[in-house]
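Bench notes, afternoon.
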Amino acid sequence: MMFFFRGREDMFTNSFVIRYIRSLSCVAVPALTLVPQICSAQTPSTIELDTVEVVQSHITKSIKSTAPAFKLSEKEFNRLGVTDISDAIHRLPGVNLRDYGGLGGLKTVSVRGLGSQHTAVVYDGIVLSDCQSGEVDVARYSLDNVESLSMVIGDNDDIFMPARVAASAASFSISSFRQPDPTKPLDLTTQVKYGSFGYINPYLRVGKAFSDKFSMNLIGDYTYAENDYPFRLKNGQHTVTERRNNSRMNSGHGELNAIWSPDSRSNLSAKLYYYDNDRQIPGPAIYYSNENHETLRDRNFFGQLQYRNAFTSQWSLQLHGKFNWASSLYHDENGKYPGGELNQNYWQREAYTSACLLFLPTDRWALDYSADYFFNNFTSNLTNETFPRRHSVLQTLTARYRSRLLTASARLLGSIYTNSAKLGDGARDYSRLSPSASVSVQPFADEMFFVRLSYKNIFRMPTFNETYFYHYGNPDVRPETANQFNVGLTYRLPSLSWLPNLEITADAYINQVKDKIVAIPYNMFVWTVVNLDKARMIGVDLTESATFNVGRRQQILLTGNYSYQRAEPRTRSQVTEYKKQIAYIPRHSGNVTVSYENPWVNLSVHTTAVSGRYATNNNNPDTRLGGYADVGLTAYRVFGLKGHDIELRGDLMNLLNRQYVVVARYPMPGRSWRITLKFTL
């Protein structure tokens, strides 16, 4: 069935990776910068909303942030050789990407071992949702339409935001909207990518500024790939080479964006979004059984509105509204089903609204009150469906103090969840208060050296699958509570002629989870969701970013990150899992990128390395997944042609052709290539 899209893998070791990853700790590597605050959350002098004025560099903001915060901009995607959003996530410390293989595989984000349901994925200011699984598939969002990506672990220093963004342990933000160039009669970007395994991806963005107050853009892209890449399959002493079959991807996406700015202090933005992916599901790679006939069609539509008004130098208002609709149509052909086929169709809907009020009593103090309401319901064609519904109310009250040497903030989140079901009993209702606080101190006024401390208490509601899914869900399962503690040191070296930038961050953390939600086998055929007593995650994240001037118009960029995570169930009654590493979380992981920028051809070599992991919480040796190192190479050049830009880029992925898996029995592609041609009018 679609829901149990999981598997295991025979032991696959790669001891060289462990040594390689440990060596990264000597280099300590970077994630780049902080989520830029919208101008109205700064000081009265930067209150205008139609154009965001950045009063400090992104690097300085990252160094001064009270919680770990990182950002990748559109320019850095090329400089670092980033190929897609999942590749960008690998450049962030403490982040685990669960990848089911290939271009069309499901990809979800987990931060510091807490699980993907604890990460809010934010698209242009509003949280994306999936009430069925609680997991957002980031693979469906194209990097071509992204202006920046940012990650905040804990609370954001920008306090002027919806309560729902603050209601997660971490937030991963995708910023896509860019206003058309008002100096051009038509702002046009067209691009095509072509690559291995039948991959082709045309993209078009058309924008127009109708006046200095109103502009629109239209975006569309289409992706097709056979994904029939070769892989090796081992069974004892025997090894065979197979090709991934039933792995075709056929997806399209379109957006319409508009922004109206009647004056310098207010704007209204709107977005219409549609996504359609009709793909085959390859299934787990099993010896003597490589056939699969599963398909899945995902569709998603949403419309959202955002209104911002800084109506005085001290008061600002944000209003948000959104309607979301999504469907998943699963089909499988197999003789074990009556009639030889199985069709499971799922639909979910959400209505969302939010209001945020910011008050700036002085230059140093900022106060925010935010209130969100959203309604979710879920239906399917299953005969045992209960048709669940949920009303959610979130409120936050936040205070921030900022001086030259100190930034401190405190927030109280109030959550109310009301559950019901059209057929049968609904899950229990819950309400909770969740406090958080963070501080950053600069001990020496003449040094860009900061010490930061943060604490955040958060909890997540069980998803509809965890509560209601037949032979799996448990209506009595309790919310999962997490306490996050972080202490960090950040430093930026004063700029030198040959070393204009050197930035280092080091963070240590402890996450304590109570009532962790897990699925365990009830009998040979049925699994059920239960609460474990406790789980604990201890870790260290290191980042480094350096720029070297090596000649006229020539620079070398060295960036990287290293993460150590020890994530363990701490429930003594679960003897086989007690103090074992939680499934799919590596002890060591890291990334190194070396880029050479010059007037001829820009080059980037990047490596992502991950130590061995286990596919089960009991760490059975038969479920061990070997470590791996994935090396990539990027070359690109921008040409000018009669005032227009033409960009040519080539990527080699998995340059060393290493075979590895991120999820058991879902092999990743070996060596592959991609060519990109981009034209900007």
